[in-house]
Model the fold of this input.
Amino acid sequence: MGIDFFKHNETYRLQQYNPPDPLIDEPVETEEGGEGEKEANLDYETPRAKWEPIPLNMFSHWKTSEWENRPVRFVDGKDVGETVAWLCSPTGYPVPVRLSQIGSVVMRVVDGECRRDFHVVERVVSMASDLFPWDQVENLAIGLQAHGFRLLNALPDGNKPSDDFERMRKAADNKTMNEMTELEEAALAQNSDVPTVVDGRLEPRSEGFHHEDSPAFGVIKTPRKLYMHPQGVRMLYQQLEVGQRTPAFTLTYPTEHRRLPVITWFVRIAGGRAMPSWGFIRVEASLKWFQKHKLGEDFINHLSRTVYEYRCRESSYDRAPVSLHPIVRGEQSLGSLLIPMSTLKSQFYRLTGL
Done:
């Protein structure tokens, strides 16, 4: 039922390829991901003029395993997919069709071992379905659902279709990524009172925890923006050694726009001066939570030390220098639940008659 949609709309298979640069300029995606510019208060912990690296080994008799506030849950997500077909809308716009497997996983550390605590995996088809008659789309969604697929509507920012194929393709990609983030958010919400690390920024997952009461921490492996003053950037690249952190600062908005204010800092977990622009991560927590519980430098140091000790040591893993072991295990665990993309594409082509 409904799978004849693609036959009736003259759909073509699309071979896997490396997408070219867009034909027209796109807005540069920023780490903020929305309206309003973040304001950085670089004087929050230490006056910016006095910034120096802060070592994490200042506690001679302190052990991560004995810290009652240590994170024990780790949330990660996965989006594996390809643009597998394309067709034209009745009004002539190109409509790429992306086929994906998305999911989220929670790994819990118990007695030093990582155990999968929760997982969910979905198969989704992402395309600009709003450009077609609603009755056709409804039948398509019902037909796909009967075979284990969920239909996602995907349009570029502003919900305006484009004649640029790559912009439409990117919109389909972004839609599946956003759906994956929602699955991560739902996983986080299950036990939001337990100290938890999320792979990435907290803002996109902010509905999954209470901003004043939940001990949720974001770990950003590849920060797109440093936010710091020139002295702070030089310190990060040229002075910060493995096992050291920067002073903490805050990121807020002039008007909140319902956005999440955070306290954040950088920790170098690998590389040292041999890798000046690599080997560090950015850690963040809800500023409202941090201030409500009257936390300070000791907590930041303890959390930084804990994150440092959770670092991945697998040389075979490409992103090991900026990855945490439980997150890597979560990614591997979730990946084992997915079927090969070639198999999924074959199933989809048979189902749709493409």
